């Protein structure tokens, strides 16, 4: 049990390290499949022993070995969050290998969207199309009996988001958020798709109010909504059943 737990934590750190590199390079059109890691400040290649997830950051005290400039805290933060997420996945889906693989893929995809939207203010179409492809793959091969419900949910919720985009003239809802809605809404079935969207607006509103109170945002100022869509999707996948049991008595 302890060995499995250790392996899951380690895998989470490794995948988190990949996420950190991918989300930095992909929006900048820098190849991420090949090419050694490098310091964004001095552009020097990073040695393998300085590229161990989390441990290297600790041993180097958060500084580049070559230029001594501070390493962005985004990298260890992404690695730690990734490791925690992998532990949650392990405890919730360890009995079903397919669900684990599917969930891990969606985790990496959603996490990429969340990080890129937070840092760059964009949601790459390539990630949306990839997510939609996986959703269709799941529907065709594993839930074909409910294919109509999947497609109806995807069309209905994305149309609702598009309506918000048009009514607010893009200020209340970006077109990237509309497109991003497609693959989670298609993947999830009712009532989980409704729960997901509800959680997205709930968390978005909560964080928005806090940012206004601490004067980090203003009324009418755009706030990236993709991260709330992404995080809420992961919450729905992990704790959707439990949350619905809590909510249903109120209706």
Write structural notes for this entry.
The mean pLDDT is 79. The chain has 9 helices and no strands. It is mainly α and 251 residues long. Helix 1 packs parallel to helix 4 (97-120) and helix 6 runs antiparallel to helix 7. It has 2 domains: 1-95, no CATH class; 97-251, no CATH class.
SSE layout and pairing:
Elements: H1 2-25, H2 55-59, H3 74-93, H4 97-120, H5 125-142, H6 147-167, H7 175-187, H8 192-213, H9 226-247
Helix pairs in contact: 1-3, 1-4, 3-4, 4-9, 5-7, 6-7, 8-9
Query: How far apart lie the N and C ends?
Result: 41 Å
Number of helices: 9
Task: Characterize the biggest β-sheet.
Answer: none
Mean pLDDT: 79
Instruction: Provide the gyration radius in Å.
Output: 19 Å
The tally of domains stands at 2
Topology pattern, helix = H, strand = E: HHHHHHHHH
Could you estimate the helical fraction of the residues in percent? 55-70%
- Structural class of the helices, strands and pairings? mainly alpha
The dominant shape is: globular
Report the strand count: 0
Q: Poorly predicted ranges (pLDDT <50, ≥5 residues)?
A: none
The proportion of strand residues reads under 5%
Outline of this structure?
It is built from nine helices and no strands.
What tags apply to this protein structure?
mainly alpha
């Amino acid at each position: 049990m302890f060995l499995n737990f250790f392996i899951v934590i380690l895998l989470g750190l490794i995948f988190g390290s990949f996420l950190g590199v991918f989300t930095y390079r992909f929006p900048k059109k820098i190849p991420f499949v090949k090419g050694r890691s490098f310091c964004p400040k001095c552009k020097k290649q990073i040695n393998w022993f300085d590229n161990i997830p989390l441990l290297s950051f600790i041993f180097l005290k958060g500084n580049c070995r070559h230029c001594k400039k501070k390493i962005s805290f985004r990298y260890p933060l992404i690695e730690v969050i990734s490791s925690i997420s992998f532990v949650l996945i392990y405890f919730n889906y360890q009995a079903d290998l397919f669900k684990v693989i599917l969930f891990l893929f969606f985790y990496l995809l959603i996490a990429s969207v969340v990080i890129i939207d937070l840092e760059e203010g964009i949601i790459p179409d390539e990630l949306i199309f990839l997510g939609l492809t996986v959703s269709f793959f799941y529907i065709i091969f594993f839930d074909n009996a409910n294919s109509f419900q999947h497609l109806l949910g995807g069309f209905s919720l994305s149309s609702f988001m598009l309506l918000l985009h048009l009514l607010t003239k893009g200020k209340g809802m970006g077109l990237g958020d509309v497109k991003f809605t497609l693959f989670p809404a298609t993947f999830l079935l009712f009532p989980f798709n409704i729960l997901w969207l509800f959680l997205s607006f709930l968390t978005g509103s909560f964080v928005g109010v806090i940012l206004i109170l601490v004067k980090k945002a203003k009324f009418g100022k755009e706030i990236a909504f993709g991260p709330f869509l992404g995080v809420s999707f992961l919450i729905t996948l992990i704790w959707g059943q439990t949350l619905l049991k809590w909510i249903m008595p109120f209706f």
